[in-house]
User: Which sequence fits this backbone?
């Protein structure tokens, strides 16, 4: 079993930056693909970014060039660096783990989820 705990959310002005962290316990992350998803009020959860066990990454178009997903297997932690934030990035951000080294943009492919961290971007 894998437990995921997100941190790093908060309130930031448009154009600012935040770095989200996802710390895992219970299993080593190195064999897992990891992903970040978000859910805005009144909207469905949507894919943001994913990283494979070998470090390959994939992003949704709206965050390309602004967000960077990375992992530190020694610390069993995954990060989401968010730059040039926009009000439309406001959402609860969730970390997810997949019992496979290959990444995926589908939430259905993920087995483990964190509790979420709120990101609010003011205009």
Assistant:
């Amino acid at each position: 079993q894998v437990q995921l705990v997100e941190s790093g959310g908060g309130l930031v002005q448009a154009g600012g930056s935040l770095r989200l962290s996802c710390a895992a316990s219970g299993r080593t992350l190195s064999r897992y693909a990891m992903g970040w998803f978000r859910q805005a009020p009144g909207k469905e959860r949507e894919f943001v970014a994913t990283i494979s066990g070998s470090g390959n990454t994939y992003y949704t178009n709206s965050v390309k060039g602004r967000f960077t997903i990375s992992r530190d297997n020694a610390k069993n932690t995954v990060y989401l660096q968010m730059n040039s934030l926009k009000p439309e990035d406001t959402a609860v951000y969730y970390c997810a783990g997949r019992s496979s080294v290959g990444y995926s943009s589908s939430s259905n492919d993920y087995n483990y989820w964190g509790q979420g961290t709120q990101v609010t971007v003011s205009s």
User: Anything to note?
Assistant: The chain has a mean pLDDT of 95.
